[in-house]
Design a protein that fits this description.
7-stranded mixed sheet, single chain, 14 helices, 15 strands
Length: about 400
């Protein structure tokens, strides 16, 4: 049994970090990054492997749907398609052409699974319901947190001090994919409203803009107008005695984005702003993981995140937060499935003290039931046991 993961590192599409984390669980390094490997190379590798053994292609969201639909229609693949299993993860429905996907395992919320089954009645879908996306392991997230601290010690100490003295974090995302694969784009108005709300509700805050979606449009072009509106709004509404730290990006003359520290405070009715470059890490999202890990270590009960960031829920829970600590910020950059996930999370926790199942748990259940020979049973049972204890 061989597992292949399909991701896109450049734009972080297809739940790149989540899918990679599943490959870690099945000890596979067959990760194909479509931002650096063309599809023809991928197909050649798939065919070569499928001629020898059963293979499992694992992908997520619209990236997986489009890629798998194209792969299964390729002439080279047709001779080995019975030796290829497809596993698709998602948190929402995408209204895309999947007419060539005749058989697949769906790991998604139950209502999303039902929509795919209804709209593709001739396809053979096996389902493993899961309401929360997969997260990297706690160890991996804390390694990224530590990397940020090692590279930017003074900033890390400043943020740690702020959380020790009551600062509230705010994890800001951005543009969201719609069912047809297009995007609901960032606007200055949406970011202005979010900044104003945060400043008015908190005396101190640490804000981190998470991922490319805060700084780019759906066509991948740079777009810094919304985040600039966020900064300007803080400066407009900040009150005496307030202080905010922002971990963000700046656009350089070479059109590349680099990490930036921005401090904004007001004392004795004088506003002070401090900007300086942060040292870059080779690991992804280290600033986000440092802020999240540090806030949880200081037992923050106000973990505010814009609601479209579906990876935030399982990552915060994996790092030790309680569902009661999560404070979703509902803004215009969200869709109904985002809100439903939080509603289900809070309902299950408040009524029965239960945590919703993650895609990692569902995936490992699939591996155990269908591909049990691909992992040692003792190892798999240990993994599943540890996940259910979290």
């Amino acid at each position: 049994m061989k597992y292949f993961a399909i991701v896109n590192d450049e734009t972080n599409k297809g739940y790149t970090a989540s899918v990679k984390s599943l490959m870690g669980e099945v000890k596979s390094d067959n990760i194909f990054d479509l931002s650096s490997v063309n599809q023809e190379t991928l197909i050649e590798e798939i065919v070569k492997s499928a001629q020898k053994e059963k293979i499992v292609l694992v992908g997520a969201a619209d990236l997986a749907l489009k890629t798998f639909n194209s792969i299964m229609n390729n002439e080279k693949v047709k001779s080995v398609k019975n030796n290829i299993d497809l596993v698709i993860l998602s948190d929402r429905y995408y209204n895309l052409d999947i007419s060539n996907i005749k058989k697949a395992t769906l790991i998604m919320p139950e209502d999303v699974i039902n929509t795919y089954k209804k709209n593709s009645p001739d396809a053979e879908f096996t389902s493993y319901p899961a309401d929360l996306v997969a997260s990297p392991s706690k160890q991996e997230m804390q390694e990224r947190s530590q990397d940020f601290q090692n590279l930017n010690l003074v900033v890390a100490q400043k943020i740690d001090y702020m959380f020790a003295h009551g600062a509230v974090p705010f994890f800001v995302g951005g543009r969201v994919a719609l069912p047809d694969g297009s995007f609901k784009e960032n606007t200055a108005e949406i970011f202005t409203k979010a900044a104003k709300t945060f400043v008015e509700n908190n005396k101190k805050g640490v804000i981190v803009f998470h991922g490319l979606r805060s700084f780019t449009k759906g066509d991948k072009s740079n777009d810094f107008e919304p985040v600039q509106a966020f900064y300007d709004t803080i400066k407009k509404y900040i009150k005496d005695g307030q202080e905010f730290v922002l971990l963000t990006k700046k656009l350089n003359p070479d059109n590349k984005r680099t990490s930036l520290y921005k401090g904004i405070s007001k004392k004795d009715n004088k506003m002070k702003q401090t900007d300086f470059d942060l040292r870059e890490s080779q690991l992804p999202a280290v600033d986000y993981y440092f802020v999240l890990d540090t806030a949880i270590k200081h037992k923050s009960s106000e973990l505010m995140a814009t609601i479209e960031q579906m990876n935030f829920i399982p990552e915060a829970l994996e790092l030790g937060a309680s569902p009661r600590d999560l404070k979703p910020y509902k803004w215009d950059l969200s869709i109904s499935s985002n809100i439903n996930a939080y509603d289900k999370l809070f309902e299950a926790f408040n009524k029965e003290n239960k945590i919703l199942q993650t895609q990692k748990q569902a995936f490992l259940k699939l591996v155990k039931e269908k591909y049990k020979n691909s992992l040692q049973s003792e190892e798999l049972n240990s993994i599943l046991g540890n996940l259910h204890q979290r």
